[in-house]
């Protein structure tokens, strides 16, 4: 049975997606949701792919083009081989045109972006900002061996400043910046114009051990998250 025969992909509501974001995805928090798609098997949602505006407003346009972020992706761990890349590729086809899609792979969580590589995204480097300057890294916090996002810490204790965090037992860390990927949606002329307006370097794909998924070969002991 082909993936198309086994699975259905359709737009789902934010309410349908929220349990996956809050309970199953490692980030454990909501995100901006503009386009939300579900991977369906026998009328059950077994995966979600979410696109929304970036939390950084400076990332919502590049030149003359609107930018949207693929900010959450999840599938159950027992899906068929190559399902994740099939799911992402299908969702990209459903987005409006012209559009630039960006997404990130966090090396601090063992991700290098192999799913983006499998679906032919552009690699835009590790930690380059829209103005071309290099990002200094990711601010995260650690307490009792557990890592916390700065927004999570701010929600818990009212601030993510170093002083307040330390007073509440959190250690502030500066971790390596994320890998950034881009996908261009449009006709040939529009894509050519997009490339001219992107200030990031287009670089070879990064490689390395990946703890959650690998291109074209997913084993049942891995939960495919990023």
Kindly list the characteristics that best describe this protein.
single chain, globular, Aminopeptidase, nine-stranded mixed beta sheet, 226 residues, 12 strands, three-stranded antiparallel beta sheet, alpha+beta, 24% helix
Describe this structure in words.
This protein folds into 2 domains: 184 residues, Gcn5-related N-acetyltransferase (GNAT) (Aminopeptidase, 3-Layer(aba) Sandwich), CATH 3.40.630.30; 38 residues, no CATH class. The C terminus is likely disordered. 24% of the residues lie in helices and 31% in strands. With 226 residues, the protein is of the alpha+beta class. The strands form 2 sheets. Strands 1, 2, 3, 4, 5, 6, 7, 11 and 12 form a 9-stranded mixed beta sheet that branches. The chain has 7 helices and 12 strands.
Summarize the structure.
With 226 residues, the protein is α+β, with helices and mostly antiparallel strands.
Count the E strands.
12
Which structural class is indicated by helix and strand composition?
alpha+beta
**What's the Cα radius of gyration?**
18 Å
Share of β-strand residues: 25-35%
Order of helices and strands: HEHEEEEHEHEEEHHEEHE
Overall geometry comes to globular
Biggest pleated-sheet summary: 9 strands, mixed
Topology:
Blueprint lengths: L2 H4 L1 E4 L2 H11 L10 E7 L2 E9 L8 E2 L2 E11 L7 H11 L5 E7 L8 H5 L3 E5 L11 E6 L2 E4 H8 L4 H6 L3 E5 L3 E7 L2 H10 L26 E2 L1
Parallel strand pairs: 5-6
Antiparallel strand pairs: 1-2, 2-3, 3-5, 4-5, 5-12, 6-11, 7-11, 8-9, 8-10
């Amino acid at each position: 049975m082909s993936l198309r025969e086994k699975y259905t992909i359709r737009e789902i509501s934010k309410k349908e997606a929220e349990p996956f974001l809050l309970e199953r995805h490692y980030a454990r928090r909501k995100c901006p949701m503009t386009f939300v798609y579900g991977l369906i098997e026998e009328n059950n949602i077994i995966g979600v792919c979410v696109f929304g505006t970036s939390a950084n407003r400076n990332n919502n346009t590049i030149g003359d083009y609107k930018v949207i972020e693929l900010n959450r992706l999840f599938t159950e761990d027992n899906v068929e081989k190559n399902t994740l890349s099939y799911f992402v590729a299908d969702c990209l086809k459903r987005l409006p045109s012209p559009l630039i899609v960006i997404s990130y792979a966090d090396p601090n969580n063992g991700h290098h972006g192999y799913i983006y590589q499998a679906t032919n995204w552009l690699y835009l480097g590790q930690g380059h900002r829209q103005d071309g300057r290099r990002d200094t890294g990711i601010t995260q916090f650690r307490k009792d061996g557990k890592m916390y996002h700065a927004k999570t810490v701010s929600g818990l204790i009212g601030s993510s400043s170093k002083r307040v965090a330390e007073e509440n037992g959190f250690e502030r860390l500066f971790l390596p910046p994320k890998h950034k990927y881009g996908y261009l949606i449009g006709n040939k002329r529009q894509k050519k114009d997009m490339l001219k307006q992107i200030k990031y370097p287009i670089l070879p794909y990064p490689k390395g051990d990946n703890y959650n998924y690998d291109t074209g070969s997913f084993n049942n002991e891995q939960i495919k998250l990023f």
